[in-house]
Amino acid sequence: MSQFVISNKILELSQAVQADISPQFELIDEITLKNTEKVLSAFQKHRVSDTMFAGSTGYGYNDKGRETLDLVFAEIMKTESALVREGFVSGTHAITAMLFATLRPGQTLLSVAGIPYDTLHGVIGITGNYSGSLKDYNISYSQIELLEDGSPDLKAISQAVKSGNVGAVLIQRSRGYSSRRALSVSEIGEICDCVCSSNKNVRIMVDNCYGEFVEIIEPGDVGADILAGSLIKNPGGGIAPTGGYVAGREELVNAAANRLTAPGIGDKCGSEQGGHRLLYQGLFLAPHTVAQALKTAAFAARLFEKLGYKTHPCYNDKRSDIIQMISLLSPDALLRFCEGIQAAAPVDSYVTPIAGDMPGYEHKVVMAAGTFIQGASIELSADAPMREPYNVFLQGGLTYESGKLGVMLAASYLLGN
Ligand SMILES: *Cc1c(COP(=O)(O)O)cnc(C)c1O
Q1: Residues 345 and 367 sit within 8 Å (Cβ to Cβ)
Q2: Confidence class of residue 360 from pLDDT cuts 50, 70 and 90?
Q3: Ligand 1 pocket residues where CB is under 6 Å
Q4: pTM for the whole thing?
């Protein structure tokens, strides 16, 4: 007997789905084992000890826990340096520090994977007219679209970085709220090679949000100069209470630290009174947590495909981020799906999600998220801007079991059982 109101049709279909996706589960398990080994090796190399978990106060000078976490993170990301901080209020904040670390007035930012994630539009100056945006600092912007098949347009990229005064390129790994696919780390490597061989002075930045630990290599393995992401997504493992990171070449990470704090202070200050244990523990759990999210995504893709919906990626496509898109085609279907996800949550299951305005987003957004950590999208959540074709973006799931139940309930709500 199911205690959730899941229709018999969905329960039956789910059994077939589970069998269909077992090859994907094997692949995910292999990746998770390798990434867990990578994380453990980094902890061991830098001799992580429980004395590092206590926080600091005031300026936070000589905070061994903070300094060691940066070293561990850089090791995992295969970069010279890293800055992992609760002081980054979000992924957007960390990405902004990366942008300002890398670009100077008079230069151009070139996005090479089409339009960047919504919250970056105001930062860049694509929309809004915010004081302190790149545009406000006389840094201009241009972009190159991805090719029809979703791969990078290397010819156009090479041409663009040879001419003009492109200071840096931005590569967004994840699809974000768009219908394109995620870029694989090897495709990111191709972009790095192309940019490097066309113009050595152009820096390469990666928005790594939602991508960490999905593959066994990261953009730092393939030539990215600097990357950034959010700790309430993949690398926080569902445990980090807030924060973001940048990782990359030392000079650029120092510049990002100067942007986060103050020039000359950089990474030497910043106390975390609550201690650092949750960031360490979250990082330790992250490969496993990401696997739970990937399994949930594969299950959702196969189930909704069987129900006749277009899903992207397909359940058996190679993934480079944790986002699953499902085309629900009507605002009503979108809302019912989100109601189902919300109703299955451990927290706030009794609330009904409605579309509302969100800072940084242009369209109204509906979000289902009954999360322990506010806005954490490594926890099971569904987001959708209210625009055609009413695609829902599903991500997260701290445990596969709760993710699967959430997806089954969403399907039941959608079918109106
Ligand atoms: C989540 C995300 C961001 C940053 O979002 P925050 O909500 O500010 O953490 C940036 N880029 C992509 C692709 C994202 O998925």
Answers
A1: no
A2: low
A3: 90-92, 95, 117, 119, 172, 174, 176, 207, 209-210, 230
A4: 0.97
